Automatic annotation (TrEMBL):
It comes from Candidatus Roizmanbacteria bacterium GW2011_GWC2_37_13. Residues 259-321 form the DHHA1 domain. Residues 18-164 form the DDH domain. GO terms for molecular function: nucleic acid binding. Signal peptide: none annotated. SUPFAM superfamilies: DHH phosphoesterases. This is Phosphoesterase RecJ domain protein.
Length: 324
């Protein structure tokens, strides 16, 4: 048995008939793949399942079966919670990452299960499974499904492996490498199509996406101990709002600069609304920076979304460094 909570979680699932599952705000591969994996397994258990998201899902994820059927909803006006017995919240650290806004709370009349791998998860529900040693929530689900004696076929294996590879940047950044590699090996042995995943990750870039990556790199600045780059809303609009460029730049470049400890990529996704992605080297914990702006994440990969301006944000980060 991987988790002591596994039996209680399965009991709650078996008791429910109609189940909601979410993707978090600005969903990534792990968020999408976790939701789709849960849906796949819950349907085999005879449950009615609906995946909901506070944002429309980018077409880049549509290579995953079922991704284009994820339902975009406005949580502020969504009245159908009464039709569901259980809400499963994977890979999501707090309620506003579910609803898309700090002003929109989740209803209390529905039971919740939280499944995550982020140490900054702030949900207080008793049925909360957090595995900080997992490199992704899909890795947590792999272990959980094993406890539930779920048969992992090729479709499920590919979904789970997609989330693991996405969150670890193809195994570059693992919390517990032996644990993660065992999961990857088992999933490949069960038919996961790694070539299919790799092709869809790295061989379908839109031209405007790569041009935006270039903007981030051209604007990179080096400060005491860190590097940063920011793209304003006007520039983002110029390239037709391609998603994923911020994360790609952060993952592939911003923790690799010599003589620095970490990097932060800033994107003004809407006027006055800035998304931050922090990436750091092994011994630098960037959650302390993400928490400054109400965010969270991992020791070496964290993020936040904040209203403000770029100069103020960089100034605040510098002030923290000067105090260390």
């Amino acid at each position: 048995m991987n988790y002591q909570l596994s039996a209680n979680l399965l009991k709650s699932v078996k008791t429910a008939k109609n189940i909601l599952v979410n993707t978090h705000k600005n969903p990534d591969y792990d968020s999408i793949a976790s939701a789709l994996s849960l849906q796949y397994v819950l349907k085999t258990l005879g449950k009615n399942v609906k995946i909901v998201s506070c944002q429309k899902i980018n077409e880049h994820f549509f290579f995953l079966e079922g991704a284009e059927e994820i339902n975009f909803i406005n949580f502020k006006s969504f009245k159908n919670f009464i039709n569901y017995d259980l809400f499963i919240i994977p890979d999501t650290g707090n309620f506003d990452r579910v609803t898309g806004s700090k002003e929109i709370a989740l209803p209390e009349a529905i039971d919740y299960i939280v499944i995550d791998h982020h140490k900054t998860n702030s949900f207080s529900h008793p049925l909360k499974l957090i595995d900080e040693q997992a490199g992704s929530t899909t890795e947590v689900l792999y272990s959980l499904f094993s406890d539930w004696n779920i048969k992992i076929d090729q479709n499920l294996a590919t979904l789970l492996l997609t989330g693991i590879l996405g969150d670890t940047v193809f195994l570059r950044y693992c919390e517990n490498r032996k644990k993660t590699m065992k999961a990857v090996t088992d999933l490949i042995n069960n038919g996961a199509d790694m070539d299919f995943i790799s092709e869809n990750f790295y061989e379908r870039y839109d031209f405007s996406y790569i041009k935006l990556v270039g903007e981030f790199l051209a604007r990179m600045q080096k400060e005491k101990g860190f590097v940063w780059s920011a793209v304003d809303y006007k520039t983002y609009k110029k390239y037709s709002f391609p998603e994923g460029a911020r994360e790609m730049v952060a993952d592939l470049f911003f923790r690799g600069i010599s003589e620095t400890d970490f990097g932060v990529v800033l994107l003004e996704s809407k006027k006055g609304l800035i998304i931050l992605s922090f990436r750091s080297k092994k011994n630098t914990d960037v959650t302390k920076f993400a928490k400054l702006f109400g965010g969270g994440g991992h020791k070496n990969a964290a993020g936040a979304t904040v209203h403000g301006n770029i100069d103020q944000i960089i100034k605040k980060i510098k002030e923290v460094i000067d105090r260390i």
